[in-house]
Amino acid sequence: MHSKHTKLRARLAAGLRGRILDCGSGDDLYAATLRRGDNEVVSLDIDFEALAAGRPPAVAGSCGRLPFADDAFDAVWACALIEHVREDAVPEMIRVTRPGGRIVIVTPNRHSPFDAMKRALGLTAWDENEGHVRLYDYEALRPYGRVHGETWFVPFGGWFFWRYPRLAHVLVQEVHVTPSLKARVRASGGGHEARGTSPMRSCLGQP
Hints:
- It is built from eight helices and seven strands, in the order αβαβαββαβααβαβα.
- By secondary structure, it is of the alpha/beta class.
- A seven-stranded mixed sheet has the order 3-2-1-4-5-7-6.
- It is globular and about 45 Å long.
């Protein structure tokens, strides 16, 4: 997947520790940040070419049905991803993250007030992007955790959009995974059965 590199996103990525799933790693824009220190990063994408060009371990698969067991990761990074997945991918991320872990999601705001301006300028709005199959708004993400906002092209507006995400062009969600959240997601039918990485989705670049 393609994304923009912003200082805010880099700061959030740098705050993740441990075994991290880079969900929809695409062009590995934040790979160097995620792989700091003793972090172990597993890249996941449906694009074999992107995975082959990146750094192992890399697993081919969909974020809508993650090929990992429950509690397999300390953190999940998903930037410019969930809007490309038809299923609600957030419950799956919660399933594979251990209690006490963190998930950071960056996704377009379905109700971005800037989309009208983009259309007037002949630019592509979020709902006109052919790769976007499921757009989220504040209300859809809020049940999973705290939601902030980002609008990188408005100078000096960072604090405002962070505090008022409904007015932002992009939504930024931080999920702090707790046992009660995992239980609530399971009870609502979210996520799938626990499973390990299948042989057909084994790590690329490994013997």
